[in-house]
Amino acid sequence: MKTADFLNDYAAALLSYSAHEIAGFYQVPLTVYSDEGVLQVNDMSEVVNFWLAGVEPYRKRGVVNTVPEIISEEQLSKTIRACKVLWNNFNTSGKKAGSETNFYILSETAEGLKIRGLIITTT
Fold first, then answer.
1. CB 90 within 8 A of CB 65
2. CATH (domain of 32)
3. Pairing relation of β-strands 80-91 and 26-34?
4. How far lies 12's CA from each of 25, 79, 80, 107, in Å?
5. Tens of pLDDT along the chain (123 residues)?
6. Are 70 and 88 in contact (CB under 8 A)?
7. Which domain holds residue 86?
8. Which residue among 2, 24, 59, 63 sits deepest, i.e. has the most Cβ atoms within 10 Å of its Cβ?
9. Record's superkingdom (predicted)?
């Protein structure tokens, strides 16, 4: 599967605001890096619980569309790739409701690509 196709499918899941649907794009164990530290996630219920609250800021900003733009991508091994993605978020008026850039470690599995690592950036 192409990374762009995966990210477009992931964007649709994000816009569903369904924590369970979003969690389907992840695989555990998962490592998340942020300014708050490093989090090792070992159970899918932790991913679901994260997204139960994680969708709220987007809902409050009225995000109804998000467009992933791949800034960089590198195939690291036969099944692992890394990419830097800019997400542009838009509200019901079509106005930009924010943007963010994150790094993803993707793994090719029997079910397709899955997120195995995430670096959340603040700049």
1. yes
2. 3.10.450.50
3. unpaired
4. 11, 24, 23, 19
5. 799 999 999 999 999 999 999 999 999 999 999 999 999 999 999 999 999 999 999 999 999 999 999 999 999 999 999 999 999 999 999 999 999 999 999 999 999 999 999 999 976
6. no
7. 3-120
8. 63
9. Bacteria
Alpha helices in 1-123 (DSSP H): 3-16, 19-23, 44-54, 56-60
Measured between alpha carbons, how far is 46 from 74 in angstroms, rounded to an integer?
28
Distance CA 110, CA 76 (A): 18
Query: Closest by alpha carbon to 9, among 115, 98, 90, 119?
Result: 115
* Count: domains in the chain: 1
Residue 106: both structure tokens together: 């993707």
